[in-house]
Amino acid sequence: MRTPRRLRSGDAIGIVSTSSPTKPQAVDRMKAYFEQRGYSVKVAPNTLASFGFLAGTPPVRAEDFNTMLHDPTIRMIVTAMGGTGAAHLLPLIDYEALLSDPKMVVGLSDPSVLLNAITCATEVPTIHGPNGVEFGYDELTPFAEANFWPIVSENLSLPHVFPVKDEIKVVRRGSIAEGQLYGGHITAMQTLIGTPWAPDWKESILFLEEVNIVLSRIDKILMHFKLAGIFDSIKGFIFGQPVECEPVAVETLEDILLRVCADYDFPIITNVRIGHTDNKITVPIGCRVRLNTMEPSLELLESPTC
C-alpha cells in the first residue's frame, strides 16, 4: 500500500462535489466545521454547480477533483455529498497525481465507487466515512465523530478494534478471516463489476450497505455479485445496518444472504454500523482487517496513514 501521511493541525482539506448537487449552506457548514478544528479549507470552484441531477458535467467535476489532487497543500479530500454520478469520473481522474502525492479521499454512498476505484488503481487507501454534508450538522453524531478523526489524524495502535461488537449479528460462523477490505454502497459497488477499476476480490473482506430500497433489489444485486464470481474469491462478508430498506414477504435480509451465499463457507455478519446509519464507524478501503465471528469482532490490522 502507498499510505498518505496522517492529517495534522493546519493542513488543508479540500471539498469537492463528485455526485449530486450540494446546497451553499451545507458547504458553509462543513467549511466552518473543519476550520474550527484547526484546518484550512479549500472549496473546489464548481462545488455548487448543477447540471440536472448532477453537480456539474463529468468533465467539470473531474477537473475539480484533479485540481485537488494536484494541490500539494491539500492532505485530505472530502466528497461533499452522495446521490449519483461519481462513476462518470473514473476514466477522467489523474491517478498518477495521487501516486506521486498520496492523500486521503473521504466519502460514502455514491462516492464509494470512487474510493474503491482509486485504491484499485493506485494502492492508496481511501476512507469510507462521513460525507461532507454530515460535518457541521446534527447528522454527525458524537459516535461517528469519535470514530472518524482517529482514523485520519492519529497514529493508531494496531490491531484497532472497531466498536461494533454489541450490534453484530452473526449470520454464519466460520474461521477467522483476514484480508483487504473493499466495499461500500451496494448499488455503487455494482457499477464497478466488469470494469478496470474493480478491486481484486481475491482473499478480501467485502462489506456492503444500503439505504431506501426494497430487499428484493438487494437480492438481485447480490445475485449479480455471485454470477460475476466475486463470492468465489472473498474470505468474509459484512453487511451494514440497512437504513429504511423495505422488507419483503417470507425472507429477512439474513435469510437472503444465507440463500445467495449457500454455496460458500465464508463467515457472514450483518447489522454493522457502517455507511448510511447515523452512528457509523469509519473504515479504510484497501487496508487489512480481521473478522472473527466467534467473539464476534472486527479489527483493523493495517493503518491507512503514516
Write structural notes for this entry.
With 306 residues, this protein is of the alpha/beta class. It folds into two domains: 12-153, 3-Layer(aba) Sandwich (Rossmann fold); 160-300, Glucose Oxidase, domain 1, CATH 3.50.30. It has eight helices and 14 strands. The strands form two sheets. An eight-stranded mixed sheet has the order 6-14-13-8-9-10-11-7. Strand 9 (205-209), helix 7 (215-227) and strand 10 form a beta-alpha-beta unit. Helix 4 runs parallel beside helix 6 and helix 7 runs parallel beside helix 8 (253-260). The longest helix is centred in the first third of the chain and has 13 residues, at 24-36. The mean pLDDT is 97.
Which key phrases capture this entry?
eight-stranded mixed β-sheet, Glucose Oxidase, domain 1, 8 helices, six-stranded mixed β-sheet, 306 residues, 14 strands, globular, 2 domains, Rossmann fold, alpha/beta
